[in-house]
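Narrative of activities, Objective 1.

The group set out to show that a structural description can be obtained from nothing but a protein's sequence at a throughput compatible with the screening campaign. Below is one input-output pair from the validation batch, recorded exactly as produced.
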Amino acid sequence: MTDLDQMKTDLLAAIDSAATLDALEAVRVSALGKAGSVTALLKTLGGMSPDERQVQGPRIQGLREAVTTAIATRKASLDRAELDARLASETLDMTLPAAAAPQGSVHPVSQVMDELAEIFADLGFAVATGPEIEDQWHNFTALNMPESHPARAMHDTFYLSPSPLRGEGRGEGASASVGVLGDPAQPLSPTLSLEGEREMYVLRTHTSPVQIRTMMGQQPPIRIIAPGRVYRSDWDATHTPMFHQIEGLVIDKGITLGHLKWTLETFLKAFFERDDIVLRLRPSYFPFTEPSAEVDVGWTMEKGRRTLGGSEGWMELLGSGMVHPRVIAACGLDPNEWQGFAFGVGVDRLAMLKYGMDDLRPFFEGDARWLKHYGFSALDVPTLSQGVGA
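Output recorded for this entry:
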């Protein structure tokens, strides 16, 4: 039998001198592989007598354990040396610019909503909200729109086919469970209003119902703005079936058109951040205001674009007027005691005019490239001290 001590010395020396992992693996195979020298010695134990096995067995097993431990130790040393070499050669320059992770942005409509809230909060206005699914009393009747009014026509208004109601009446109509949009070719299931009228629910066509709910829910004086989504059946470069609107309402004693004009002028100067904003009020007609006025804003040509400010021409921007006495009376207030004014403007239109957008449809298409170009950082918080625009 080969001298075990000499074999152990030779194998440990070979393991210690292995300079690479491949060389170490070769030593392991030659010693502990299927045809390895230590494996061959282990196989001889079966042919030994009990006395020989009692003597040689512990020596051969000790040899295998010594070789196995030495290989594991050398492998750990070689792994550590290889890692140190990689760390020394694979350096990372922290001064190089890193690729920025994809970031979201604040939609221009959301930004303009925040700008408007900031401006009107400084003027003492609170923000009021209401349901987007309305009964016709709040959306039309209380706003002095008779049943024959063209705004009630199917081609302008989205009528809803209602499911069984949990409650009815002016205060609970919007909380009813409502089904899908009705087919104009099929008769819609009507519901019974508080007045006994047969009516369907609608997607609100303006945020004016919020004014009605506010006047019915709190006592004057009232100063609110009502921003939110509204719905009308239209689709082109300047109209979409869903768009955003903001309306303002003031109810108090002794309110005049002069207060309305000052409020609009102050608001527009702050929003467009220009002192040369000029307004022109033209007589008009809205069923919920009397007298009514369309508000035109002066514009000038700058770099080939119409920019609000100056007086080279006039651009129609919003509608306004004194709240109709019938609307005040419908909300349970005495029109001989309380007066007020109201106005409404499209938030999307304001965003287009301020930030130079020509088409309304991309506002709602979710194009990441458009949002990256026109969007705002979450840190672009509107403040009057620093300017509401980013």
